[in-house]
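Quick sanity check, Heme biosynthesis protein HemY:
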Amino acid sequence: MNNGLNLPPKVTERAFARLAEINGDGPVRPLRVAVAGGGCSGFQYDIRLDDVAEDDLILSNGGQAVVVDPVSLPFLAGATIDFTDELIGARFTIDNPNASSSCGCGTSFSI
């Protein structure tokens, strides 16, 4: 995966800004980005607010955090986590250099 590079995923300013909007004035919960088996292409992204686990990689900026578990990390090496707000909807997106193909909605991929 990722041609042997072990680069951590990157999170854009736009994604951190949207996470700050979601968290608002309440308790700050990190955004978990994980990879699980399934979906129409073999793997799927699981993106949700969650708590930090002991062995998570924590990517933080401005008091906001994105966490990735150690099992998902190799699948997300070098990926960019972003937030898009388009006519078809607003969502967190992942530009993943490890994915050889992905489905049309962008939530599942194959390696």
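Posting the structure with no commentary besides this: The first helix runs from residue 13 to 23.
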